[in-house]
Amino acid sequence: MFLLLQKYLRKRLRKNYIFILKNKMTDRRKIAVVGSSNTDLVVKAERMPEPGETILGGAFMMTAGGKGANQAVAVARMGGDVTFIARVGNDMFGNQSVEGYKKDGMDTSYIARDAQTPSGVALICVDKKGENSIVVASGANNRLCKNDIDAAKTKIEEADYLLMQLEVPMEVVEYAANIALASGTKVVLNPAPAATLSADLLKKLYLITPNRTESQLLTGIAVAGWEDAERAADILLSKGVENVVITLGALGALIKNKSLTERVPSKKVEVVDTTAAGDTFNGALCVALAEGKGLADAVQMATAASAIAITRMGAQASIPYRKEIE
Ligand code: RIB
Q1: Positions of the chain with pLDDT lower than 70, given as ranges
Q2: Does residue 162 contact residue 153 with C-beta atoms inside 8 Å?
Q3: pTM
Q4: Nearest C-alpha to atom 10 of ligand 1 is from which residue?
């Protein structure tokens, strides 16, 4: 009798353990990304051309890009459960991009197809120092609309974090932020490319992650080093943003909120191409935060991820997987 009871209890325990384990595995960090999807046409060159000048470059590469897509891919590769809300054309570039996102395990059900406008394209020149110059033909990204956001409303409401950038219309960014806020989803904004933001949107942000140029546009402070970054961060905090992380390229990243000021130095690596370094940073940062890491630890993880990305060519081609940073 006792043995039977022991066997029964052991079986129950094992069952419960498997249930907990399974739940843990499916309880992945939910992140919704609203943003752009581009195809990047990249040329490596010694230097950037001057206005009116033609120069002969080196290697050419065509790769999936777009700030939104890059950040969503970074979330997926860091182990996050990501829904990407975007708009692409009904064309070859759109098809290729969506295929790639599926391979990365992203939920692509909310990527709208635009019959009238081609998918976004970015022309990128990368110089020998790994710095880039980018021109984007927004195409379908510019036609992302409130209806597209409504279609994905439940996904935004269920998410832990909503991550956005500024390569899609501002009114759509603001609309999605409102939905997120109403349901307790935290809003993270990577304000790239640089644009002014409404006072109303700033108040809704859990976290903003500008680089030097974006910080200057948003605060009027020319950010050369840590002290400038601190002053710029203070201005953003005074406008109602809860947390600020200013990325300072080779220097590192500054974290500031009401109770914390921390400088996280960057990792020294050989720079090949900085494209998507910021996107990798943002994707990794959101996953780390959604996993419950503190801001400082999350920025450490994001810094490690973006350090790997800059040692490789291309946008999505350069974004690392979780095991690489661990
Ligand atoms: O942040 C890098 C990205 O900016 C590129 O992939 C390009 O498509 C542009 O959106």
Answers
A1: 1-28
A2: no
A3: 0.91
A4: 66
